[in-house]
Amino acid sequence: MSQNITPWEIDAQIEAPCADISFASLPDRALRVTMHFSSVRGGLPNDLEIVFGQAYALTWHNESLHSVSVQWPKPLPQLSSGKWKGWTYPLLRIRGSEWLKRFDFMPQAKQMGHFALVAMNDIVEVVAGPAPAHHWLSQAEPDSAKRTRS
After folding, report:
1. Residue 57 neighbours by CB distance under 10 Å
2. Does 142 sit behind a cis peptide bond, omega within 30 degrees of 0 on the bond before it?
3. What pTM value is reported for the model?
4. Distances (CA, A) of 115 to 15, 102, 131, 146
5. Do the Cβ atoms of 100 and 127 come closer than 8 Å?
6. Residue 97 burial by Cβ neighbours in a 10 Å radius (0-12, 13-18, 19+)
7. At 125, is the secondary structure helix, strand, or coil?
8. Which of 41, 49, 137, 139 has its CA 20 to 30 A from that of 104?
C-alpha cells in the first residue's frame, strides 16, 4: 500500500495556517501539542490544543528542513478557501506510512495512526493511538512565547 496523505479534519474552523507548534510530554505516554494559530496575523483568533492519549513516537523538524528531507506524495492537501487558499492544510493524516509500519510488531498497532501537524516554522509528526482529544484555547488562557507571523 502506498502512502496516502489526507486532511485530518478534526474541526471545521480550520481555514488558516498555523505559525508555530509547541509540545509537552505528559504522564502515561500522553502528549500535548499546541498549534499556535493566533500568532498568524489575520488568521484564526485562538490556538488549538491536541492531546494524544497514547503517543508512541514523535519527530519534530524545522519546516524548511522537513520540506527538503522527507519525500511526501505531492500535492499535499491544501486550505480550500479565503486568503489562505493553496496553503498546506495544517493537520494531516498519513495512511500507509512507512514509519507506522515499524510498529506492526505491537499488539495495538492496528489502532495507531500517523499524524502530521504543519506550521510555518515547524512540522511535528506523531504515531499515536486512536481518538486524540482537542479543544480551542481562548485568548485568556496562558500561552508561552507568542509571536506574530505575517
Report:
1. 15
2. no
3. 0.86
4. 18, 15, 11, 24
5. yes
6. buried
7. strand
8. 49
Contact between residue 134 and residue 126 where contact means Cβ atoms under 8 Å apart? no
The answer to whether 147 touches 18, Cβ cutoff 8 Å, is no
C-alpha cell at 82: 479565503
What is the amino acid identity at position 13? Q
- Report how far apart, in Å, the C-alpha atoms of 108 and of each of 75, 105, 113 are: 31, 9, 11
Q: Which residues in the chain belong to E strands, given as ranges? A: 4-7, 20-25, 31-36, 47-52, 55-62, 91-95, 113-118, 122-128, 133-137
